[in-house]
Amino acid sequence: MTDDFYDILGVSRDADEDAIKSAFRKKAAKYHPDVSDDPNAEEKFKQVKKAKEVLSDDEKRQAYDQLGHERFEEAEKRGGFDGGRGGVGGDPFGNMGGAGGNIGDIFDQFFGGGGGNGRRRGPRPGKDLQTRMTISLEDAYHGVEKQMTVTRPEQCDDCNGTGHPPSADSRTCPACNGQGQRTTVQQTPLGRVQQTQPCRECEGTGTIHSETCSSCRGNGTVRNETQLTVDIPAGIQDGQTLRLEREGAPSESGGPNGDLLVEITVEDHPEFERDGADLHHRLAVSFPQVVFGAEVEVPTMDGAATFDVPAGTQSGEQFRLRGKGMPRLQRRGDGDLFVHVQVVTPESMNDEQRKALEAFAEAGGEEIDVKEGFFEKLKHSF
Questions:
Q1: Rounded Cα gap, residues 343 and 288, in angstroms
Q2: Are 199 and 176 in contact (CB under 8 A)?
């Protein structure tokens, strides 16, 4: 895989957000360690995830396009995009500008602040939420759309998420003088330590209002029930998680919503045991069927199929029906259905059946006490 994020996702440099999301889903499904046969799947999956993270963020994408891949990666290592600082008043990028210019100037062009202290970060997205959904094996086989109801925090409509009614009076916070943060200096054995934290009085806004919203009690969010449509892909396995983008909690700083993570539980099936993309079925047959051979019906996820039991089949023998298993998630082809033959011992027989079976045993030279455990001994002999 190339290092360029656009090439990693397979999109053009003018690709919009929808194209980037679509490309990410395809690549992530291809290289997800749980489903990919690629020996380097885990590393490629990390690259795909990183590419989507950068190209989906307007500010990071602008910087990436301007700096190029190598300089952008170096900038991140130095804390250029995660809130780190290269020292008080210093340049978080270090001296990477070279003769062609100063990276701090480029940073100032895109983010409205040069060097270290002047840099401002964009609004942070809301928190991701998690929930679970239970589906049947049939749902996992065909792939379906499911409706689910979730209770989640949402922006308060009465105050538009501000925490106070529009009519409320506002004034500059006296505790922080409208800065939204307070700085404390503490003397330690290692010297003076300066610490900056959001102001508690105004909760980092720099403004105090005369009243709070009665609907959300000043939180800016309320908990509501919402019905969502979840697209279940064919072949999904128990324990895998689907991500519903922007369906999580709202941001506290005006950014986008977080995501909703839906963990899938696939119910057990009475006819099949699942092993990845393969299915296993235990087929009950009679003794004459395995002795002489027979055509029998075997259940599959698409309905009954005929299966020829070869003459002389042993109890416990396994047969493979290719392509009759589960779809491989986001990949071509289906798994296989393994049929495990089990000979059923009759619990009762009529006189004609009993005499025929006794004759069979005698013809084979078996000495069997019919009164004492004949059928039990017969069952264990096969």
A1: 9
A2: yes
Q: Mind listing the pLDDT tens digit for each residue in 261-298?
A: 999 999 999 999 999 999 999 999 998 999 899 999 99
Q: Render 295-342 in DSSP notation, one character per residue.
A: EEEEEETTEEEEEEE-TTPPTT-EEEETT-SPBPTTSSSB--EEEEEE
What are the CA-CA distances from residue 54 to residues 77, 245, 330 (Å)? 14, 16, 24
Pairing of strands 170-172, 207-209: antiparallel
Query: What would the two tokens of residue 190 be?
Result: 């290692």
Q: Give me the pLDDT at residue 122, please.
A: 64
* Architecture of the CATH domain 126-153+221-267: Sandwich (2.60)
Q: Which residues contact 205 (CB under 8 A, 6 or more apart)?
A: 173, 180
Residues spanned by CATH 1.10.287.110 within the chain? 5-111
Largest CA distance in the chain: 106
Residue appearing with tokens 């922080």: 176
What tokens were used for 90? Answer: 């210093």
Percent of the chain's residues with pLDDT above 70: 81
pLDDT at residue number 87:
35
Tens digits of per-residue pLDDT, 297-324? 999 999 999 999 999 999 999 999 999 9
Query: Rounded to an integer, what distance in angstroms lies between the CA atom of residue 259 and that of residue 243?
Result: 7
For the domain covering 5-111, report its CATH number. 1.10.287.110
CA distance 176 to 185: 15
pLDDT for 78-96, tens place per residue? 655 543 333 333 333 333 3
Residues of the chain with CATH 2.60.260.20: 126-153+221-267, 273-381
What is the token pair recorded at 105?
């100037």
| Fold observed for domain 273-381 | HSP40/DNAj peptide-binding domain (2.60.260)
